[in-house]
Design a protein that fits this description.
mainly beta, about 280 residues, globular, 21 strands, isomerase, Putative glucose-6-phosphate 1-epimerase, Aldose_1/G6P_1-epimerase, Beta-galactosidase, Chain A, domain 5, Gal_mutarotase_sf_dom, G6P_1-epimerase, about 5% helix
């Protein structure tokens, strides 16, 4: 038996599973929202940003890590902003430590509370795998309704907060030529620069972003890949908006950049019995 079996720990009063691969790579996943709040590659340093000002109360969103956005992105629909998955307690289905990685699987199913907001029978499963320099987060959604139930549609994202040393010294490569919606300016445009630099508030949805991305910093890189998440959200609130966010410290915006695997432009539609999955992979360099 491995000496690094996953174990439950307490994180600010919330139960969480601590994953540690045999090579020393680690991740921490809250049961609250199935939210990854820490990732340390083997021999490396923390690569996810978690706000020290965040609350961890039941029913409250946690600022940082990898919030699971489902079944609605932002306010693009009638549900509460970003849906309900990130503020609900998920069930830990299983954990395992293999020769190369450690894995946790968490599950959320519809109940009376979710059906009051979104009247569909669903199962959502999040699988987190950590090992070496790699973190994989996969979301799977199943329509669990009866055969004669109507199809449902949803949007989703893995709202990944990447920890950076200084956001103004980062460059995000791989978006050139892509159409995007700029939420700050309320306009549509096409990325014409080879790399995106951050020197002001940015809130963009890039559509059909199927190429791997590279987050470049002095002396280190991060490769960001996704499967079956066709869109990418890039977000940093910058100084003025940060001042209006009670759960983000005044200089927090300098230490983070959200690069989110997402399905927004074309909502996912599932008939009874159908499933969908999407994955984001981070590789530290």
């Amino acid at each position: 038996m491995s000496t690094h079996q996953p174990r439950l720990i307490d994180v600010h009063g919330q139960p969480a599973v601590h994953l540690r691969a045999p090579d020393g790579a680690q991740a921490i996943v809250l049961l609250h929202g199935a939210q990854v709040v820490s990732w340390v590659p083997a021999g490396g340093e923390e690569r996810l940003y978690l706000s020290e000002a965040s609350g961890f109360a039941d029913g409250q969103a946690v600022r940082g890590g990898v919030p699971v956005i489902f079944p609605q992105f932002e306010q693009r629909g009638p549900l509460p902003r970003h849906g309900f998955a990130r503020t609900r307690r998920w069930e830990l289905q299983r954990t395992d430590t293999g020769r190369d990685d450690a894995i946790a699987v968490l599950r959320l199913c519809d109940d009376e509370r979710t059906r009051e907001q979104w009247p569909h029978a669903f199962g959502a499963e999040l699988t987190v795998a950590v090992g070496g320099t790699r973190l994989d987060v996969e979301l799977e959604v199943e329509h669990r309704g009866e055969a004669d139930a109507p199809a449902f549609s949803f949007t989703a994202a893995l709202h990944t907060y990447l920890r950076v040393r200084e956001v103004e010294e980062t460059r995000l490569e791989g978006l050139r030529g892509l159409r995007y919606h700029d939420n700050v300016r309320g306009s549509e445009s096409v990325q014409d620069l080879y790399a995106l630099s951050i020197d002001d508030e940015v809130d963009r949805i890039y559509f059909d972003a199927t190429r791997p991305l590279q987050l470049q910093e002095p002396h280190r890189t991060l490769t960001i890949e996704s499967q079956q998440f066709p869109d990418v959200v890039v977000w940093n609130p910058w100084q003025d908006k940060t001042a209006r966010l009670a759960d983000l410290p005044p200089l927090g915006f300098r230490r983070m950049l959200c690069v989110e695997a997402a399905a927004i432009g074309r909502p996912i539609v599932l008939a009874p019995g159908e499933q969908w999955w999407g994955r984001q992979t981070l590789v530290a360099g």
